[in-house]
Amino acid sequence: MQVRDLSEVHEQVANLFPWPEKAADWDQYRLSKDQIEFFNENGYLPGIKLLNDEQLEILRSELFQLVDPALHDNSLFYEYNSNESTDPQTILFHALGEWRITEGLHDVLWNPAFVMAASQLLGDKPVRFWHDQIFYKPAKKGGVVAWHQDYSYWTRTKPVAHITCWCSLDDATEENGCLQYIPGSQRWGLLPKTHLAGDLHGIREFLTEEQQQQFDKAKAVPVKAGEAIFHHSLTMHCSGENRSTRPRRAFVINAFADGVISDSDEPLLQGVPVVPKGNRMEGQFFPLLFKGI
Q: How confident is the model at residue 2, as a pLDDT?
């Protein structure tokens, strides 16, 4: 069954996230000076509340539909991997493009709590959408996401003015595969691209001795369901296996400061028309989410 392509709608369709009517109404979503300084120093910022209980349940229900190909048409996804894990004993569901399919995962792009934080962490810039992702690690056999830098997969756009928002739909713990970070690694520069669901520590062969020492100081960052972690696109991060008796589900919003351009004459995402090299990223698939206050 063909579903409506929600990429044609550049505003909320279900009004799941009330949009502030006055400039002062945005203050409740602003990050503090200390939070911004923490992000600039460490390359990530955890514990940002994005979803209430009602919103959580809606997005969990939508994700449940999307991870089962029998329940939903997945033709609008840019990528759809029912199991991207390279270990046959584990499962890592990973897909891109859910904003085109379900109303909640579309509308979350226009969540005021997300766009305000993203704008501040990008230096108070207007925020434009890049792409989204969903991850599902089933109980007891959820696979890993290897250590990597997001921008190593995004060099087809420039300059480096990107940010990632990872939001958990379950309590994320060390046991079920929460994110881990290497504080300050956003200052390492660009490293080689590794297989996202391959050897957890594969990136280590490319590190200097000094980077190896910092690598050994990696931090596990648990968060509650409905909370997000924002990180710089060059910050090293990973997530381990889900060894717990409950699932670990999350969605990701990748965005960049308005003005980023294409650096490729090839399609930037599967099924998306080419944005010629040197042209601004904009249009149907890269909407402006927030102009600023």
A: 53
